[in-house]
């Protein structure tokens, strides 16, 4: 059995799955681990929607950048920030604050990571699906998400049918600062760009000649879901 640290450091996103199902006992353990994540002020401001309906999965797949593993995975879990539950319990609750969105997003991220780590400890693999935010309103309509419930990300889970390489992360010196924020160390960045070029060139599939700098230049050189603020306000968030 791997240690927890070895398991976490060995994480790879899995996008191809066998037909083997996840047992009810395994799913229960994964969801229990997710719920045990820390929660800001113990608000527990997250709902998880398990998508078992094949038609719904297909519809979500088309709305989430046509990623086929959404329908191929044994399980697909949708993590949502949720303050609607609180309003049902306490109708006079004050909502609409940006801080509440941050709480919901932070809590959901920790729950999602707990779920994935638990799944990997059982021999499963998974991949997060941020593309559910491409069409959040449409997905919300499909799933009947009320005000103050928004889809943040999906999580595909299943038994791996691939063995991808581990993708190199940024050097520690570009991520961890001591006491004061430090500017980018260009030498370390150049070394990392070279490492990423070598990684992409050596992959068994989807080879490309790309550095990390060129990747973020491409991603951050275009608008990032400019409709999102309007959608969040429509759902009752970020009004104050």
TrEMBL record:
- Report the GO molecular function annotations: oxidoreductase activity
Q: What keywords is this UniProt entry annotated with?
A: Flavoprotein, FMN, NADP, Oxidoreductase
EC number assigned by the record: 1.-.-.-
Leader sequence range is none
**Per its UniProt record, what Gene3D superfamilies does this chain match?**
NADH Oxidase (3.40.109.10)
Q: Which Pfam families match?
A: Nitroreductase (PF00881)
Q: Which SUPFAM superfamilies match?
A: FMN-dependent nitroreductase-like (SSF55469)
Ranges for domain Nitroreductase: 8-159
Report TM segments. none
Q: Which family does it belong to?
A: Belongs to the flavin oxidoreductase frp family.
Please report the name of this protein according to its UniProt entry: Nitroreductase
Taxonomic lineage from the root: Bacteria, Pseudomonadati, Pseudomonadota, Gammaproteobacteria, Aeromonadales
